[in-house]
Specification:
Length: about 200
């Protein structure tokens, strides 16, 4: 009698979302933060994935760089980098932000860990010159390092009072769901590029 082979379940992908309060889920229950909501959305599409929430409220790019090695464990398949909003809010020199993001990307690449870069736009009250220099960081780094880019993390909710907390900076739980719905095709495209591991 022919033996039927049992299909081997696909390995669960391990991702880390490295970010600031937008990743951490500022003022929201843990289950309503970006990483678990994204994980749930991917699982509903049949993609086995675990996403670690490595978001720290108030973190700048430099803060993310300083904790990078212990935030991203060995065995991580990919990292979503969502940093830079606090740099812009504080009016930090875009050259410093760029240098820090470049260091994060380079260090992860050296470990063989692919990066999805989530972009940010500078607040327009900082002036056209600052905004142009800041906004260019993400597409230029993605191009030079061959990364999957999601141009603007707050796409679909920025400035919308119904989808943000009263500070108009942090999404509500519904705002997070909108972010996840909008970024989902880009995350799926990123997952499709990950090298197969046993």
């Amino acid at each position: 009698m022919a033996q039927t082979s049992t299909p081997v379940p696909a390995r669960t992908l391990k991702l880390v979302a490295l970010g600031d309060s937008l990743t951490a889920g500022y003022n929201l229950p843990g289950s309503a933060a970006f990483p678990p909501v994204l994980e749930q959305a991917l699982r509903q599409k049949g993609i086995a994935v675990e996403i670690v929430n490595a978001g720290v409220s108030g973190d700048t790019v430099q803060g993310g760089l300083e904790r990078l090695d212990w935030s991203v464990a060995e065995g991580t398949d990919g990292v979503i980098v969502e940093l830079g909003a606090n740099d812009a809010l504080r009016g930090l020199d875009p050259a410093t932000t760029r240098k820090g993001l470049e260091a994060i990307i380079t260090r992860l690449k050296a470990r063989g860990i692919p990066v999805l870069l989530a972009g940010m736009y500078a607040p327009r009250n900082l002036g056209a010159d600052y905004a142009a220099r800041f906004d260019a960081i993400y597409p230029e780094l993605a191009k030079s390092h061959g990364l999957v880019l999601y141009p603007f993390f707050l796409e679909g909710i920025a400035g919308d009072r119904a989808l943000n907390q009263p500070d108009l900076l942090h999404p509500t739980a519904e705002g997070v769901r909108v972010i996840v719905r909008t970024i989902l095709p880009t995350v799926e495209r990123f997952l499709a590029t990950l090298p197969a591991k046993p």
